[in-house]
Amino acid sequence: MLWILIIMMIGxxxxxxxxxxxxxxxxxxxxxxxxxxxxxxLNDKSIDFILVLGGDKAVRNYFHKSINSDIPVLGINxxxxxxxxxxxxxxxxxxxxxxxxxxxxxxxxxxxxxVKIDRKNLQSVLNDVAVxxxxxxxxxxxxxxxxxxxxxxxxxxxxxxxxxxxxxxYSMSAGGPIIFHESPVFxxxxxxxxxxxxxxxxVSNSSHVLIDDISARLHCEVILDGxxxxxxxxxxECIKYLPSAHIIRMKKNSTTITxxxxxxxxxxxxxxMPPSSKLLLKTMEYEGMITQxxxxxxxxxxxxxxxxxxxxxxxxxxIKKKISTRDSRQKTYEIS
Length: 336
Fold this sequence. Notes:
By secondary structure, the protein is α+β, with helices and mostly antiparallel strands.
C-alpha cells in the first residue's frame, strides 16, 4: 500500500541511542530543511511520520509506549546491520532523503497482540507473548482456551503466542512454524511439552486466546517482546490489537524470507558451537540481561568456560556486552 503524504514535520524517537547518532540525524534533516521534533514533543498532531533511532528494539519500545501509534514509523539502525523493523542504517539515511520528500515508500501494516495479565490491561506487542516460570528448568502447568473452548491442559517449559512477524523469532526457536507477514493469524507453541504429541497451533487473529490456571513451583512471568517482564498469578489473555503498527518500507525484500535466511545461517553456526555456548544462549533467552556470576550460578559451568563461550558469542555478534547499571564494575550480557 502506498501512502501519499505531504511531508511537513518529522518526529524522532530515541531509545538507547548515542548522542553522536542523534546529532548526525538532526544535522542531516536541517541540511535538507526538514522540520523535526524529538521525543517529548511526539504528540504534536502536525507530525507526518516518525524516525525511530536505535534498531528493532527501539521500534518495539516505541510501539509499547503507544505514542501516536497511527503515524507511520521508519526505523533507523545505528549499528552495522539492518533489522526486520528497521531496514535503514544511519550511515545510508542521506541516500533516502530524496525518496522521503517524494513520498516514495510503502507502509506495511504489522499486526499486534493486545495483552491482559490477570485481567489488567497492558501494552501491545509486535513479536510475541511468552509465559514461563521465573527460573528455567521448572515446569509450568496451564490450560489453553480458544474462544472459551478448552484446547489442552499441558505441562511444559512455557507457552508462546506470536504474531506473523514474531513467528521467525523466539517461536521458531521453540519449534513453531514460519508465518508469512500478510497472514491474519497467530501462532501458539507449548515449549518442550511433556506430551510428545503436542504440536504448535495456528489460530485466526480474531480469536480470543486465554492461557488459564497458570501454576508452577516458582512464580511465573509474562515476557512481552523479550523486553519487559510481569508477574502473573493465573491468566494471560491475547487478542488482536488495533490499530496495527505502520512500518515504512524503503527496501522491497521480503522480511519473512530474510528472517528465514538469517535463522538458517544461525542454525549452521550453532551446530559448530560447543554445548557451553549453546547453553549460555538458551539461558540468556530465558533470563534476559545477565552477568557472568549469574550465568555461572544458573548453568553450573566453570567461570573459565563461561568467559571463553562469551568471547566466542561476542565475536559472532550473537550477544552484546554492557556496563551494569547496578554496579559499574560489572558487565552484563544479552542476546543481540
